[in-house]
Specification:
The protein has a five-stranded antiparallel beta sheet, with no helix packed on it. The termini are far apart. By secondary structure, it is mainly β. It is about 0% helix and about 35% strand. It has a domain at about 95-220: Jelly Rolls (Sandwich), CATH 2.60.120.260.
Length: about 220
């Protein structure tokens, strides 16, 4: 038996260029919806708890502002230690004297025709400059303590006249007319420090043809 082997041959084919027409391939896209449970925690969208409903209540509060007003009252005036200072009780507690040259004054004593307060005053009227009258009251004081003295007066004419008041002989107030406004009330005041516990308050009226009205005499400390 014979075996025949053929020697290999190399066949060289001519090179050809194949030109394929362009083709458009459409690949269908499949959409697959997976349930949320199949998604991994990393791929799941964040979950937010539902926002509870909120209600707002606007309450109007009325604020009461209390303003405290402090009324500063004037200090009470010191008590007047003179009795019957406005001659409302006539000449009670007062003594009345006339000078040796006293020429029957037209009017003297309490009157209700003019007054500074209340309903009465003391009036003195004399016909000449030489006429003089005085009223006196005794009061109890504390020695060494300063006292204030004052009185109100009114004149009906303007000749030269005066009122001089003393406390235990010490002059404490003096008023001289002349150039003053008539029919107007004025006040004169002074101070004194008594040396004795009981003293005399004396007011001298020296006048001419005019009227002195004298009212609201005060001695206080």
């Amino acid at each position: 038996m014979y075996n025949y082997y053929s020697s290999p041959e190399t066949v060289i084919l001519p090179r050809e260029t194949l030109t394929l027409p362009p083709q458009t391939l459409t690949i269908p896209v499949e959409t697959t919806t997976l349930p949320a449970s199949t998604l991994s925690p990393q791929n799941q969208p964040p979950s937010y708890p539902p926002r509870p409903s909120q209600s707002f209540t606007i309450t109007e509060t009325q604020t009461s502002i209390q303003i405290q007003t402090t009324v500063l009252s004037s200090p009470s005036p010191a008590a007047n230690i003179l009795q019957n200072p406005g001659f409302e009780s006539g000449m009670t507690r007062w003594s009345y004297y006339g000078s040796p040259n006293f020429n029957a004054p037209i009017t003297v004593g309490p009157t209700s025709s003019q007054f500074h307060s209340g309903s009465h005053s003391f009036i003195f009227q004399a016909p000449s400059i030489k006429d003089k009258s005085e009223i006196v009251q005794t009061i109890i004081v504390t020695p060494g303590i300063a006292y204030a003295f004052s009185f109100w007066y009114r004149i009906s004419a303007n000749p030269s006249s005066s009122i001089v008041c003393t406390a235990d002989g010490q002059q404490i107030a003096r008023m001289v007319t002349g150039g003053m406004t008539v029919n107007t009330w004025f006040q004169t005041s002074g101070t004194f420090t008594p040396c004795n516990p009981s003293i005399l308050i004396v007011c001298d009226f020296i006048g001419s043809a005019m009227m002195f009205y004298f009212d609201d005499v005060v001695v206080a400390c």
